[in-house]
Amino acid sequence: MTTDTKAGAPFAASPPLPESGTGTPVPAPPGGARDAAIVTRGLTKRFRGGQVAVDSLDLVVPRGSVFGFLGPNGSGKTTTIRMLLGLVTPTSGTRELLGVPLAEALPSVGALVEGPAFYPYLSGRDNLLRYDAADRTADPRTARERVAAALDRVGLAAAAGKRYRAYSLGMRQRLAIAAALLGPRELLILDEPTNGLDPQGTREVRALIKEIAAEGVTVFVSSHLLAEVEQMCTHAAIMRAGRLVAQGSLAGLRAGEVPRVRVETPDVARAARVLRELGLMDVHAGEGEVTASLEDVAAEHANAELVRAGVAVRGLAVVRPSLEDVFVELTGEGFDVDG
Amino acid sequence: MSTAEARVAPPGAGAVVPVARPFAALRWFRSELGLVFRRPRNLVMLGVLALVPVVVGVALRIAQGEVSAEGGAFAQVTGNGLMLAFGAFAVMLPLFLPLAAAVVAGDSIAGEASRGTLRYLLVTPVSRTRLLVTKFAVIAVYCLAATATVAASASIAATVLFSPDGMTTLSGTVISGWEMIGRLALAALYLGLGLSALGAVGLALSTMTEAPIAAIAATVVLSVAAQILGAIPQLDVISPYLLTSAWSGFDAVLRDPMAVSDLRDGLLVFAAYIVIAGAVAWARFADRDITS
Ligand SMILES: Nc1ncnc2c1ncn2[C@@H]1O[C@H](COP(=O)(O)OP(=O)(O)O)[C@@H](O)[C@H]1O
Ligand SMILES: [Mg+2]
Prior knowledge:
The complex is a heterodimer.
Chain A: E1 36-46, E2 52-62, E3 66-70, H1 77-84, E4 92-97, H2 102-105, E5 109-112, H3 124-134, H4 143-153, H5 169-180, E6 187-191, H6 199-214, E7 218-223, H7 226-232, E8 235-240, E9 243-249, H8 250-255, E10 260-264, H9 268-278, E11 281-285, E12 289-293, H10 299-308, E13 315-319, H11 323-331
Parallel strand pairs in A: 3-7, 3-8, 5-6, 6-7
Antiparallel strand pairs in A: 1-2, 1-4, 8-9, 10-12, 10-13, 11-12
Helix pairs in contact in A: 3-4, 4-5
Chain B: H1 24-38, H2 40-63, H3 73-77, H4 83-92, H5 96-115, H6 117-123, H7 128-161, E1 167-168, E2 174-175, H8 177-206, H9 212-231, H10 243-247, H11 260-285
Antiparallel strand pairs in B: 1-2
Helix pairs in contact in B: 1-7, 2-4, 2-5, 2-7, 4-7, 5-7, 5-8, 5-9, 7-8, 8-9, 8-11
Organism (chain A): Bailinhaonella thermotolerans
Keywords (chain A): ATP-binding, Nucleotide-binding, Transport
InterPro entries (chain A): AAA+_ATPase, ABC_transporter-like_ATP-bd, ABC_transporter-like_CS, DrrA1/2-like_C, P-loop_NTPase
């Protein structure tokens, strides 16, 4: 299996990426820290009161990837991100960002953690200037320029002088992303960046993330939306109840899932029998259609056999497995079950 | 293109470690100072502090002649204008001044936590020690500004309302108006530092909650409770260790010669409170989980 090709040429020099379709978390490769943007080993957080929010997490985020950190609400995504950024002390385990100690890595990391947070009575511009002033590595002479550029980039140039209090939810979210883009970054850690956005805002944020990633910045983005990760990301890790279920390139994750074939026909019973005889598994006969797991049978071969058996085929399609299928396969439950 | 654009990191190349810039600490301190001094609530408090001496002065002016032979600091005001400032300090020490210090100090960390801005400051990154030191520096400046405001407002009111020529010290000697202003400045400095010590306590309390109002209330309650304890004669043994008792030592500047050793003792108490409260704040905050 080759590495995911979506990332294209800029990442051709990247090391072999961890891939997994087996359902077991991939152990961190030895010496992976240098080439990985994020590496965690056995990262665990048990909150006071005994709740284990994150359980022995072994995560490897390759440099240059757009890494989707996927999990239902309450699965431990935000807690993991807080540990990565040094806000929460792990109960056990280690984590490394950009291959250097945390304090050295953080100036090159832009972050959005659990929603935007700003001073309500300051303007968007003054809020960004305030965060910039707190950054000892930021050049004060270019502060206004950088703030203006960041605001412009997220489409807030016109609202720069408005008080944060008067911002809409979408504007607040974009201001938080602007704050994450204030300095030169090698890694962006975005916790549910499209939360609370309308469809238009969601599209804009996704486009922005792709644009940033195209510049070579590693983007680690958490989400509880399967479709979102499938659209934006080159890699993903799937969390469930604090544990890592799987991680790897999207192609690698899906590889464990056998594609299904969907046959539209008025001849449901006969079609189902033919497919079973061909060796297809998990055959479901529905209303005017039959679906089945292709196993290693080629779709065109199945089609030929159906026609030969006199089944009237109106349509035939191969259904690529979605991340949701992967999740259901690995956990035996639907994605949105636990809260 | 724009400077906000992220830098491209060649794969495999180690992270370029950004270095701290000169005067970065000063830049952030000024930014934090601006936040506190631009905040309407904090300005209103300074305004009220400025108003009290004026109100007292006007009241005394109106009452002039009616009351004459009563004791206390205010009895001298009509004869020695600048005495108004010391009287104002005495009136505002029980509640107004500690309240002003408590509001700014109690809000310092808890306010950031409740707003959520604390997590963003820490990932900027700002080290937790640097955060505490900067916040305390801002609190101290606000406390000094509070006492300076009272002193300035009282001096101006006294000059307008009464004759500000030489005045009688508590020791019975007469000193010039200019020397009096010097001593008033000294008293404002002394009390400003005394309030800063309370501010350090408020800062420590502020690291323990995500509700600023809780930290503010706790700080005020502590200051009032300490004053009550200090007023109970049977508890005289603990009085030297109470921050609030050290505050009232400011009248040492009104003796002739000045009771320098009293001031020094008070400053030692302030320093002790700042060190202990700072240590508590650091111990509580250095590895606290930030889940706000
Ligand atoms: N401060 C805390 N104290 C105790 N439990 C917490 C705390 N923060 C989060 N949790 C618990 O940890 C689990 C994971 O939460 P979180 O990381 O916020 O999940 P997600 O971001 O994936 O929705 C949840 O069950 C949550 O209730
Ligand atoms: Mg979350």
